[in-house]
Design goal:
Shape: globular
Largest sheet: 8 strands, mixed
Radius of gyration: 22 Å
Number of domains: 2
Number of helices: 14
Helix content: 25-40%
Number of strands: 20
CATH superfamily of the largest domain: Glycogen Phosphorylase B
Length: 383
């Protein structure tokens, strides 16, 4: 395999219209000379944020090409105009990475259009369910056509196997650019807050366990008369959370979503990070990127046992039973009182990120997986 290489790869991903979601591909290009990334002309995020790209750009040696790509009320009902087909005929890639779910309309559309080029798809779904028509039809077709798949967690891989997908699977963790967190400086607005700061970063919705976190902090604050609960994010529960914090006379602070460029400063300003997610009927935590970011910044982390959280934390943080505010309080108290434990978790967090979650590590593993996928001599070029 050492004398073989990948020369050209095409990637399709609606999320990569956001620059943050393109950073990883800069590291992948170290191994693949030509990467072309296709993104939507415009996209509206889950929180209503709007992004657009009107014309082709070059970024860190990668061509980023916007194409007409829209979705309806259901995110899985995406469609795109196949304006890229001419380019595929002129500059044929060895493999295509399509970062959408197997039951998505766009993945189905894509698998019909691209009949003679191997492709791999993405799956974060970690709850097994049988989809209604037409999604079940989309999925069956895609699973048959795809050469391999990426999953976000062990649970997602297990679900994919239950869907009878027997081909190659690569676990593609969401990584971090480590140096950003190493160089970060504290966020000025948080200097005045009472220590210790217990922080949640994410959507302010019930399924994320924000009220479990609030209840646990209330117990902590009542016992120790110190500390601040910090919420960073937006969501439908924001006003209710604010009201409860006032009524309970807690020490609290709310920040709107902070840009990717500044989020590392938040981590450098807090004492503990909490991800208290719950499991719903159709969703549970699929990854928990804030955990990786927290560990990279040297912040001790506490997470519920929902979804992929225990897998991502490993032995580098504390786990509590989801929905159990008393258990969360006890973990918060334990980590607050035990300085040796804090130091141990911080060191383990650094090590875990270094070994599993840096862009450098993930890019190398992904490249090796793609080489394995296209090991057919007709698909791999000699160096």
């Amino acid at each position: 395999m050492n004398n073989k290489s990948l020369k050209r790869v095409y990637i399709f991903n609606h999320a990569s219209l956001h620059k943050r979601n393109r950073e990883f591909f800069w590291y992948l290009r170290k191994y693949i000379p030509e990467i072309i990334l296709f993104v939507p002309y415009k996209w509206k995020g889950s929180l209503g944020e709007k992004r657009s790209l009107k014309e082709k750009i070059k970024e860190k040696g990668i061509d980023i090409i916007p194409i007409p790509w829209v979705y309806f009320k259901n995110i899985q009902l995406q469609v795109f105009y196949p304006s890229f087909l001419t380019l595929l005929r002129i500059k044929r890639p060895q493999i295509i990475i399509f970062l959408e779910e197997s039951f998505s309309l766009s993945t189905f559309e894509f698998s019909i259009l691209i009949k003679d080029i191997p492709f791999v798809f993405y799956s974060a779904q970690n709850i097994f369910r049988k989809y209604p028509f037409p999604f079940s039809f989309f999925q069956k077709f895609v699973l048959k056509r795809a050469k391999g798949a990426f999953t976000l967690s062990k649970e997602a891989e297990e679900v994919l196997r239950k869907w009878n997908f027997k081909k190659n699977i690569f676990r593609w963790y969401l990584g971090v650019e480590k140096k950003i967190f190493e160089k970060a400086k504290p966020f000025p607005l948080l200097y005045k807050l009472k220590r210790p700061i217990f922080c949640y970063i994410g959507r302010l919705i019930k399924l994320k366990g924000v009220y479990v976190f609030l209840s646990a902090f209330e117990k902590f604050y009542s016992k120790y008369k110190k500390g601040t609960i910090l919420f960073v994010g937006e969501g439908e529960e924001k006003e209710n959370l604010l009201r409860e914090c006032r009524e309970k006379n807690l020490s609290y602070y709310f920040l709107r979503y902070v840009s990717h460029e500044k989020i590392s400063s938040i981590y450098k300003s807090i004492d503990f990070l909490v991800l208290p997610s719950l499991t719903g009927k159709t969703w549970k935590e699929q990854f928990g990127r804030v955990i990786v970011e927290g560990m990279a910044a040297g912040v001790p982390v506490i997470g519920s046992d929902s979804g992929a959280i225990p897998e991502i934390i490993g032995d580098a943080g504390l786990i509590f039973k989801e929905g159990d505010s008393q258990d969360l309080f006890e973990k918060m108290e334990k980590i607050f009182l035990d300085e040796n434990l804090r130091r141990e978790l911080i060191e383990k967090g650094y090590k875990r990120v270094e070994e599993n979650f840096t862009y450098e590590v993930i890019a190398k593993k992904l490249y090796e997986f793609l080489l394995y996928i296209i090991k057919d001599e007709n698909l791999v070029q000699d160096k």
